[in-house]
Amino acid sequence: QVQLVESGGGVVQPGGSLRLSCEAPGSIFSAAVMGWYRRFPGNQRELVAAITTDGFTNYVDYVKGRFTVSRDNAKNTAYLQMDSLRPEDTGVYYCLADGRPRSDWTYWGQGTQVTVAS
Questions:
Q1: Pairing of strands 10-12, 112-116
Q2: How far apart are CA 55 and CA 57, in angstroms?
Q3: At residue 111, does pLDDT exceed 90?
Q4: What is the mean pLDDT of the chain?
Q5: Beta strand residue intervals within 1-118, DSSP E
Q6: Per-residue pLDDT reduced to its tens digit, 49-104
């Protein structure tokens, strides 16, 4: 069983920045769309940002212009650069390696806490 390794969460003041990282095994990373999700009450998850194997990106509206998703294929690592953070960004963020539709597997990170408070 594979679990992605996340890091980079922490506590930051409003307007500050964090950079989340997510590392996956190379065989998984090279074939996966990498997504970042946040958790809501009831254990629901919302897609915040994603990047495909060939570099196309997508963002939820409220992070556009503030967050940037990227991937470093040499390091098998995806990143979420979070700038201009707001208190409402607070939550647990999870990364996902998604092999669909070519394959039927998905792998999740353990989650990392982001807290934005003054």
A1: parallel
A2: 6
A3: yes
A4: 95
A5: 5-7, 10-12, 18-23, 33-40, 44-51, 57-59, 67-72, 77-82, 91-98, 106-108, 112-116
A6: 999 999 999 999 999 999 999 999 999 999 999 999 999 999 999 999 999 988 99
